[in-house]
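dumping this here so i dont lose it
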């Protein structure tokens, strides 16, 4: 499961990305607004957020090299998708508790960082809506970002609270 789920998600993301690249831009004016790209970003919203941050950083620092943008949008994005779903497959085995954050030795800081990342994912969903003129389609596009964001916030928030309870029981 830990290798199959990430592999299947990367294959799906690759298929959607290739389909998006092979299609003419058409009336949408941008490949970013195409349904295949939106579906891929919805399924992998945390990876899409990281891609957006990397693209913004690359645009600011490297004078917009097309090859670098292509590498970030394809190769690095696929690695992020694989990493996202690998982490999900590991965390599924934790029975409601994080398996990864206690191993960092800075569990609470890791939990807080991931909660903030969940807020970023949900906020990005909110910021995407005006780009699509608040249509029913735009609401559909933003819902997965809200779900991912809320799931990350809830899971790692619960784990953060559990870390405080664990210390309280150890003190007794």
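and the seq i came up w/
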């Amino acid at each position: 499961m830990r290798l199959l789920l990430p592999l299947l998600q990367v294959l799906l993301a690759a298929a959607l990305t290739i389909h998006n690249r092979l299609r003419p831009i058409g009336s949408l004016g941008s490949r970013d607004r195409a349904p295949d790209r939106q579906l891929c970003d919805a399924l992998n919203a945390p990876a899409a957020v990281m891609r957006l941050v990397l693209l913004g950083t690359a645009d600011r620092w490297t004078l917009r090299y097309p090859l670098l943008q292509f590498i970030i949008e394809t190769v690095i994005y696929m690695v992020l998708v694989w990493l996202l779903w690998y982490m999900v497959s590991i965390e599924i085995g934790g029975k409601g508790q994080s398996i990864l954050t206690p191993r960092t030795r800075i569990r609470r800081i890791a939990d807080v960082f991931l909660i903030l990342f969940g807020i970023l994912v949900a906020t990005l969903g909110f910021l995407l809506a005006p780009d699509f003129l608040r249509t029913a389609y735009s609401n559909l596009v933003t819902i997965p970002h809200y779900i991912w964001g809320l799931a990350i916030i809830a899971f790692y928030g619960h784990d953060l609270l559990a870390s405080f309870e664990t210390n309280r029981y150890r003190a007794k």
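The helical segments are 4-22, 35-43, 45-61, 66-92, 107-128, 136-171.
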